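Technical appendix A lists one of the benchmark inputs used to test multi-chain prediction within the project. The record comprises two sequence entries:
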Amino acid sequence: MKIAFTTSGHSLDAPLDARFGRAPRILVYDLDTGTFEVVDNTQNLNAPQGAGIQAAQNVARTGATHLVTGHCGPKAFKVLTAAGIAVYTTDAATVAQALELFRSGGLTRATSADVEGHWV
Amino acid sequence: MIISVASGKGGTGKTTVSANLARVWPSPVQLIDCDVEEPNCHLFIKGELMARDVVSMRVPQVDAALCTGCGACSDICEFNAIAALRDDALVFEELCHGCGGCTLVCPTRAITEKDRRIGGIEVIQAGHICLVQGRIDVGVAMAPPVIRAVKARLDPGKTAILDAPPGTSCPVIATVKDTDLVILVTEPTPFGLNDLRLAVDMVRALGLPFGVVVNRVGAGDDRVHVFCRDEGVPILMEIPDDRRIAEAYSRGELMVDALDGYRGLFEGLVHTVQGLRTRTRREDHADLRV
């Protein structure tokens, strides 16, 4: 089972990026093997619109079934839900802390977006 | 001849110039209100409603049964308006600019297009003025498709005066593009000058012939005039700072109808504009591409 985390860094000790769509990278942790890969998400940093949609598509392409991030807007949530990805939001400081919270059952699955969309 | 009236700064008198110019124009004229987010020419031009139409744009729809989730649609979309999933694609209509790229590149022809309503058009006949106004629907963010639909009503046999939205961004460019002359309306204030500079940069970048109308002359300072002189920008008309103009405006009356002397001022603008047209035809607008 793979879990995606938004991050500004390259390792488990890196900060968990509170932004979903415009996080520079997505760290994908494989619970079965204990390994991870880092996927680039920087094409969204300067996107005029739809960054969350693109990022959600990127997460779906990694094969992750769970996403842990800071906040998730309505369009991204719609794509993630359609892709069958469970969304969790947290204010954990690092990816490692967020992973630990996930493992210990300290995160609650989001049932809707927790922030407003940025467009219309 | 197609004349567009733009400004940069809002509230400088675009509608005032457009509507009064249309009123004194000596032959049948179209007045096209391209400020589709808040059209207001109709407050001054009252006539008979001749037609009302819906404006739509083409947006994609995906047949999930045919979609393979290849992502070609999402890759080509500059606006992130379509997301490819494993065996479906999600469309966000409100982000779509209607370019049709996704429909073209879909290898399995899973994408077709449908109409999405984004606004309306009204045609009002008032004497020799045919007012065409666009109005974007509440909640729709993109004005240019509505503006293009309004401009599609241009009658090649008539002079048209286009009242542009304020600013210098996409809706304004959609309005002034392909017009024969841009009248930039400004006021002699620091804000008026600042935004006039932006508007001048815009019309120069577009290569459009233009001139300036200074409104409320006497209210501010002379920096707009100095700018125009230094830049070689022609001042086509000056409207004095006259409280009676604002009073007439507040009653929905045009100054050329309500106040003595102003009909002649705008008739002068007609002659100036027509003279420019005659000259610029011959010289390919060289003297106004300043």
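Chain A has one domain: 2-103. Chain A touches chain B at residues 47-51, 53-54, 56-57, 60-61, 75, 78-79, 82-83, 119-120 (CB under 8 Å). Comparable benchmark entries are summarised in Table A2.
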